[in-house]
Amino acid sequence: MTTTEASRDVVFAEIAGMLRTVLAELGVDDVEIDEGTSFNEDLELESIDLVTLTALISERWGEPVNLAEFLADKDLDEVIALKVGDLVDFVVTALARAGG
Amino acid sequence: MGKILANGNNTHYQRMDAKGVDPAAAPTVVFIHGLGTDSLASFYLTLAAPVAAAGINVLAYDLRGHGRSECPDTGYTFQHFVGDLGALLDVLEIEGPVHLVGNSFGGTVAFGHALARPEQVASIVSIESEPPTQPWADRMVQAMDYMAEQLSSEQTFLDLEAQNGAHHAKLARKAAAKLFATTMISEVWHGRLTSAEELRSLPTPVLHILGGEGLQGGDPHALERALSHCRTVVIPGQDHSVLVDAHRKVRELLIPWVRGIHTDVPWIDAVAEARALIA
């Protein structure tokens, strides 16, 4: 396994954990999450849940990983269609940029 | 991220500090969303980060009965919402003056606050919105009656799903359940309404952003005539959802407007600068 793959696995695990936290607050548990899971169709999350997730990501990784800025460049349809893997891509890229 | 008791209601809010400048010396905008399916997400996921990146402090909050704020059974007059905004600024110790940016009903709340405490408001950006006048209240009565009728019909949700997808239909169902569990529909237009004379004497500069096909498309300059310090920008091809559907254009108008007012550019020049940027 390469360093990048390891990092990607770690980021995915952390984001999945955050999502479980958000879902638990909504009374949902025991849900399967993989990189193809969509926030809207599969997890049935609303935009306000994405705000919570954004805040959790900001708390975890700080300034270099600004999900709110990333989402502000997207149209509503794109935000609704987001999948967990898209977020993992974004975090891994942002962390690599900050580290490089 | 936080929750704080304001006006007796547990209120969810989000803040972003201005970047690249001393936040203590930077202007502050307060984002106020609309009724129903809306929440602070409409602003947080569109304007908040770019506005903070432009050197402006951001506060966004969920109105009572919306998003992650407390949802009491009663207490949804327009006056409650205005009181909530003033109380939130007080408990967060934001002295201002602040720039209030309101979408739809959120703009009406902004006008209500500016009329009550004009010294606390540097400017208003009103998006598809209007002040709390008697004609506004009359329209709200009709709109709430219509909404109650529509949301009582299963066909409404089926149509919504067919036209806009399951996501919108799900949101509407949840909003309907919340609305019917509270007195929001039956009391939101109650409160201290504003006279034409009071409106004309409002000292606050107002940037009024409308969709060309929005709710005020028939007479887009009515607010300019009613206020002494207001100019309207119409974004063609947009409807009442102009904030979400044309958020880049709204951002391009908002940032130079707030910067201009903050640096004592005459408000009419701040309008001209904002308009030129999207022309």
TrEMBL record, chain A:
Tell me which Pfam families the record gives: PP-binding
Task: Please indicate which superkingdom the organism of origin belongs to.
Answer: Bacteria
Question: Domain Carrier spans what residues?
Answer: 20-81
Q: What is this protein called?
A: Acyl carrier protein
Q: What is the lineage of its organism?
A: Bacteria, Bacillati, Actinomycetota, Actinomycetes, Pseudonocardiales
UniProtKB/TrEMBL annotation, chain B:
Q: Which GO terms describe its molecular function?
A: catalytic activity
Q: Which InterPro entries match?
A: AB_hydrolase_1, AB_hydrolase_fold, Carboxylesterase_BioH
What Gene3D superfamilies does the database record attribute to this sequence?
A: alpha/beta hydrolase
Q: Please give the Pfam families that the UniProt record associates with this protein.
A: Abhydrolase_6
Q: Could you tell me which residue ranges the AB hydrolase-1 domain spans?
A: 29-250
What is the protein name stated in its UniProt record? Pimeloyl-ACP methyl ester carboxylesterase
Q: What organism is the protein native to? A: Kutzneria buriramensis
> In the record, what lineage is assigned to the organism producing the protein?
Bacteria, Bacillati, Actinomycetota, Actinomycetes, Pseudonocardiales
